[in-house]
Amino acid sequence: MTNAITTTARPAIERRQLNLQQQRVRAAFWFLAPMLVMLFLVAAWPLFRSIYFSFTNVTLNNLYAGEWIGFDNYLSWRTLSSGRTIWRGTLVDPAWWNAVWNTVRFSLVSVTIETILGLLVALVLNAEFKGRGLVRAAILIPWAIPTIVSAKMWSWMLNDQFGIINDMLLNLGLIDHKIAWTASVETAMVAVLIVDIWKTTPFMALLCLAGLQMIPRDIYEAAKVDGVHPLRVFFNVTLPLVRPALMVAVIFRMLDALRIFDLIYVLTPNSKATKTMSIISRENLIEFDKFAYGSAQSTLLFAIIAVFVAAYMWLGKLDLSGEGR
Amino acid sequence: MANIELRNVRKSFGAFDVIKGIDLDIRKGEFMVFVGPSGCGKSTLLRLIAGLETITSGDLIFDGERMNNLVPSKRGIAMVFQSYALYPHMNVFDNMAFGLKLANSTPTETRKRVEKAADMLQIGHLLDRLPRQLSGGQRQRVAIGRAIVRDPRVFLFDEPLSNLDAALRVATRLEIAKLHHDMRDVTMIYVTHDQVEAMTLADRICVLRDGVVEQVGTPSELYERPNSLFVAGFIGSPKMNFLNGRLAGAHGCHTLGIRSEHIDIVDESAIWRGGVIHAEELGSDNYLFVDIGAQDPIVVRQAGKRQIPYGTKIGLRPVADHLHRFDERGTPIR
Amino acid sequence: MTIMDTIKSAGFYLAVAVIVLVAVFPFYYAILTSFETGTALFEVNYVPSSLDWSNYATILNNGTFPRNVLNSLFVAATTVAFALFLAVTASYALARVRFRGRGLLLMTILAVSMFPQIAVLAGLFELIRFLNIYNTPWAMILSYTIFTLPFTVWVLTTFMRDLPLEIEEAAIVDGATPWVIITKVFLPLLWPALVTTGLLAFIGAWNEFLFALTFTSSETTRTVPVAIALLSGATQHETPWGTIMAASVLVTVPLIALVLIFQRKIVAGLTAGGVKG
């Protein structure tokens, strides 16, 4: 912005004058400031405090009385006089690793099935047929229902004695005795997966549909004229073209799945088979009065998700900022 | 009203230089057209004058006053955009009055000025309409009206005709020419990539290429005495014929240029001979494409309507004092 | 060939029917259950067999449910209004002003919206205790900002980016400051986007469970999801399925109605938030 030849008058006045770009940047700063302050207050600061708590031994009732204990909530060991070493902390807690395993299993299975089903539903909805609008409206219903409500609805339908699902399966002859879907250890995860897939497939389908509709129709017509088999068209044309949209949808869903809490809290409370990282950290934080220990677990969850996002963005070279458009 | 001076004006976006040092004087009340191929920097130059982009270095001076750091609304300019850029939710009156209201003009004064401009453009009956209820031509008039209402000292046009269809384009071009006659003391700067628009509207034309000025002059100066091979090829329709190699060497130059209307069809004393490979009949004129062994066929304007069958061998002779000779660097040899 | 075509189209419509049935049936069954009491509740019906409003009467007249609905409305509406207010100006800055670090800022905002909420629970708990708003609606309004604000900023930024540049430049030439551009020029054009974004944020706030569960301690301050989750019957072992379903239907029907009315806009909003990568 320096001018070598400022021969004309009024340099003094000019110095105080901001040009358009400078004026806009200044306005942008004031426009962003309230939002940034707010995000700092509700996100950055609490996150920092949570991480801090994980290195202390504070309790729920006295958040300020704790002292710094380093990594003890994560991992610590003590060698007894007998020579035996006792390990303690979240990282050697079988309940924690059970939760990690549950969360990962749930996320991978649910997102995979949702992606496949979502793509299938989107393909159906992408075809021209009478009443397409109605069908699209119908699949929005599961999405619109609050998670808690759908958990309750399904736990009623999956009820062991009076549930309609058992009744249907019995009538169809697929099972010979009633199953305690939500209570039994073997089926609890299946029940959670059913409900989650039912509720979130519409979201996937809508995102896939939006991706599909961006593909120009004449590509299909050209393929048809050339007599390419529809399956080959799908794998060689459709899939590569919706891949970017699909990638974004998958990461959004994956992040959502990794932090799942409410569905499991209501549908299969206290079932060891479905306890996830979010559930177990909240248990420790609020219910078991192991506030600092719970903080350590929530911090670990945060770290896992952060690593996952970083890896995904790095591997996928994903431009989520939308700047590249 | 304003005398505009540009002194070594430069603009770069990051490491990319768009405007590479432009010196230009635009006289008070003049109609100046910036013309050039896409990417030559003509729109950027206009936006620098408007103040929508910040000048990287150099000076922009209106009537002796440096404008570099002044916001657009303080420069006394008005601008007509390619896409009209009307506010879609405001009716025509509010569209035209928006700037005045922001400048705290009184309601009576605002109404007076809007109505005067509307009458001038014959859009008085449209004041209550929304932009979406108007045709393309009407929208462009409103956009011009909005600019007039600001009572600017500099009027800026950024390709205002390129969204209109061919017929409307000619009519609106006439409208803008009339506006220039009516507002004699307002300096107008007009950007286009269409050299016909430039030739028909301009008092003077500034041909830009890769961020530098190629030539500034009146339309006839540019047409008759192009300063470079580029200007010679850019101005005029059909394009000037260029001959290289042996054909040019015969006239002592690297490239020989000759316009289609400066070639006579002759039987004897022909300098070039060749077969007619195509003919375009435009009604008033016929253009013959003749293969004389050069890289491209040579285009010849044929007065009258004598039919020359395809494949006929004819002789051509350029009018001697309308030959344009250029050296290897594209500069004219005079 | 014609037989093949018939089979194909029959198969297609079968797929459509299955999709619709699976999507709609659970809610249909909830409605069915909500009209049943006593022993009728414990017999499996596929078609309506009774039309008994007593579950609705129970939920509306007894207990704190109406109060919970009001809580939810207040919390969701306030959260959304607050988020939109902050997001409109912020998204203008992010979408339309060139400045250094803009891409990084956008990524940060997106990252915050994908936060696992449990990761800030402990810190938020402390903050809410410190501000002395535990067990009040303000606890929820404050904590919901963590997901509504980034979401609204993000979606509005994508909408704001699509507004034509020349209109803004015309306004600049007319002498409009950034504030005037937002309020007088862009806001009137952004109404549809604001409605969509607001609605999506509202649904998010209305459905939130983890914070509402953690930051309330009495029945009268609960929001609807918590109230439904913790609804208990006369005895410990008897789940009042009829009233739960009645409550569920009551809070879901308006939501479904809204979603169906704004169907197209919601799809646009969801994809703006997601696909336009």
UniProtKB/TrEMBL annotation, chain A:
The chain crosses the membrane at residues 27-48, 106-125, 137-157, 188-212, 233-255, 291-315. It is a multi-pass membrane protein. One of its GO terms (cellular component) is plasma membrane. One of its GO terms (biological process) is transmembrane transport. InterPro entries: MetI-like (IPR000515), MetI-like_sf (IPR035906). Its main location: membrane. The keyword Transmembrane helix applies. Residues 100-314 form the ABC transmembrane type-1 domain. SUPFAM superfamilies: MetI-like (SSF161098). The keyword Membrane applies. Pfam families: BPD_transp_1 (PF00528). Belongs to the binding-protein-dependent transport system permease family. This is Sugar ABC transporter permease. The lineage of its organism: Bacteria, Pseudomonadati, Pseudomonadota, Alphaproteobacteria, Hyphomicrobiales.
UniProtKB/TrEMBL annotation, chain B:
One of its GO terms (cellular component) is ATP-binding cassette (ABC) transporter complex, substrate-binding subunit-containing. It is a peripheral membrane protein. InterPro entries: AAA+_ATPase, ABC_transporter-like_ATP-bd, ABC_transporter-like_CS, ABC_transpr_MalK-like, ABC_transpr_MalK/UgpC-like, Mo/tungstate-bd_C_term_dom, P-loop_NTPase, Transp-assoc_OB_typ2. Residues 4-235 form the ABC transporter domain. It is found in: Cell inner membrane. It comes from the Bacteria. One of its GO terms (molecular function) is ATP binding. It holds the Pfam family ABC_tran. The keyword Transport applies. SUPFAM superfamilies: MOP-like, P-loop containing nucleoside triphosphate hydrolases. Keywords: ATP-binding, Nucleotide-binding, Transport. PROSITE patterns: ABC_TRANSPORTER_1, ABC_TRANSPORTER_2. PANTHER family: MALTODEXTRIN IMPORT ATP-BINDING PROTEIN MSMX, MALTOSE_MALTODEXTRIN IMPORT ATP-BINDING PROTEIN MALK. Belongs to the ABC transporter superfamily. This is Glycerol-3-phosphate ABC transporter ATPase. It comes from Ensifer adhaerens.
UniProtKB/TrEMBL annotation, chain C:
It comes from the Bacteria. Pfam families: BPD_transp_1. PROSITE patterns: ABC_TM1. InterPro entries: BP-dep_ABC_trans_perm, MetI-like, MetI-like_sf. It is found in: Cell membrane. One of its GO terms (biological process) is transmembrane transport. GO terms for cellular component: plasma membrane. Keywords: Cell membrane, Membrane, Transmembrane, Transmembrane helix, Transport. It is a multi-pass membrane protein. The chain crosses the membrane at residues 12-31, 73-95, 104-125, 137-156, 185-206, 241-262. Its main location: membrane. Residues 69-262 form the ABC transmembrane type-1 domain. Belongs to the binding-protein-dependent transport system permease family. This is Sugar ABC transporter permease. It comes from Ensifer adhaerens.
